[in-house]
Design a protein that fits this description.
Length: 453
């Protein structure tokens, strides 16, 4: 009851925190109302699990709004709450979200720590699709760190797990991840082999992954096969437009790749068209990285045309966006440091609480074991006493039985002797009766003797 009360109070604190953030966002506002509704309900396991899921959903929605501070805050609350109610599924989801947030902030060691915690839980739950997903996430981080040996190890594990459950979509994703690793290693034949496997699997399930086409284009670009590279960059553009619309965030970078390949193929007019499309779309979507890339492409293009004034203007825009991104990165690093500090602080507090809880549980466990031992030893002693009594009773019974047998034998012997004696007496009496005169005969002669006298 005490634990549930603590959970109840914790939910109330979460709801108050949610009231202060992003009330204008429909999804977040809906989740906030869900939490408030859960708090008003009677405590039960279903309410606890729903609360943990709502906290995880809030974290995800804040991440989608690029509000990493609140996303991390609710992910940690979801983790703490899930541990408290021992809801392993939600705990694994919280670890995954924190890993993703740290990865996106560039904190790869922190991301790996959370991904491995997530993987452990998914393995305990034997959730094969999520096991595959965690292995792919880990492979991605190792690839970014340049640890290609571990990247391949986890990428191949992801593929094998997906193959076990015949999940061809995840197999395609894993093949794409392995292809990216080989590309970064400079092993282009193996990269293309893995990426073509991904393409084949995509065809089998009727899906098209933008990443596979972009990566194949990048491999061909690195090999100097610009016409093939442009072909795959163009196909990736069409996939993005078909799945995400003309204003797909992916298109800004794809336009830059198409512009670069057009320049390599000496089609300067096409290159200019793609760069300008990239800038226009990226401006609409606020994609500063894509804007920066496309201005750089235009500056290079104007230099080839010897239009140095235009090249200088475009290069200035490139520098301006580069500086802006650098400032944002610095801000993100500061935010990341603060997030990491808060996370470490909360983890330390959580570890202290957990240590105290574990100590109390260990003490309680030891007491239960001691009590169980007492019961066990008492039972053993009682059983031993019962065994001694049973053995003694059995021995007494056997002795009594033997005594009764001896008495019975002696009784039979006495009876036999008695019969024998009586038979002898009766026999002697019959002989005596046959030899001696009868009483009547004696009385008769005694009376005669008396008369003569």
């Amino acid at each position: 009851m005490l634990k549930k009360t603590r959970c109840f109070l914790f939910c109330a604190a979460v709801a108050l925190s949610a009231d202060q953030a992003y009330a204008q966002h429909a999804k977040i506002d809906s989740l906030k109302r869900t939490l408030s509704s859960l708090i008003s309900r009677p405590l039960s396991p279903s309410v606890d699990t729903a609360t943990a899921n709502a906290l995880n959903d809030l974290s995800w929605e804040f991440r989608m709004q690029d509000d990493y501070a609140h996303a991390f805050e609710f992910a940690y609350k979801a983790l703490f709450f899930s541990k408290n109610i021992r809801f392993r599924k939600a705990e694994g989801y919280a670890y995954h979200t924190m890993g993703l947030l740290l990865r996106e902030q560039g904190n790869y060691p922190g991301a790996l720590k959370n991904y491995f915690a997530c993987l452990k839980i998914k393995e305990e739950l034997n959730n094969k699709p999520q096991i595959s997903n965690c292995n792919m996430e880990i492979a991605w981080v190792y690839r970014k760190e340049g640890d290609y040996k571990n990247a391949l190890k986890f990428g191949e594990t992801a593929w094998k797990v997906s193959d076990q459950i015949n999940d061809k979509f995840d197999m395609a994703n894993a093949s794409m991840q392995i292809g990216a690793i080989y590309k970064d290693m400079g092993d282009y034949p193996k990269a293309l082999a893995s990426l073509n496997t991904s393409l084949k699997l995509e065809e089998e399930i009727g899906a098209r992954l933008i990443g596979t086409h972009i990566l194949i284009g990048e491999v061909y670009k690195l090999q100097g096969e610009y016409d093939k590279a442009k072909e795959f960059f163009y196909s990736s553009l069409k996939i993005a437009e078909g799945t995400e619309g003309v204003k797909s965030p992916s298109n800004g970078s794809i336009y830059y790749d198409l512009g670069e390949m057009s320049m390599k193929l000496h089609d300067l007019a096409a290159a200019e068209k793609y760069y300008k499309k990239g800038i226009a779309l990226s401006n609409q979507l606020g994609l500063k990285e894509s804007i920066k890339e496309n201005y750089y492409g235009l500056a290079a293009l104007d230099s080839i045309r010897e239009d140095y004034r235009s090249a200088f203007e475009n290069f200035k825009y490139y520098i301006a966006y580069k500086d802006s991104l650098l400032n944002e990165q610095n801000t993100k690093r500061i935010t990341q440091v603060q997030m990491q500090y808060d996370f470490d602080k909360k983890q330390a507090a959580d570890s202290t609480r957990n240590a105290e809880q574990m100590k109390q549980e260990q003490t309680r466990h030891d007491q239960e074991i001691a009590q169980q031992k007492t019961y066990t030893y008492g039972g053993m002693i009682g059983f031993a006493l019962m065994l001694v009594i049973a053995v003694s009773s059995f021995r007494a019974y056997r002795q009594k039985q033997k005594a009764n047998e001896i008495i019975s034998e002696q009784k039979q012997l006495v009876e036999a002797k008695q019969k024998e004696i009586l038979d002898s007496i009766y026999y002697a009496q019959r002989i005596q009766n046959n030899i001696l005169p009868t009483k009547k005969y004696i009385d008769k002669h005694l009376r005669r003797f008396t008369r003569h006298a």
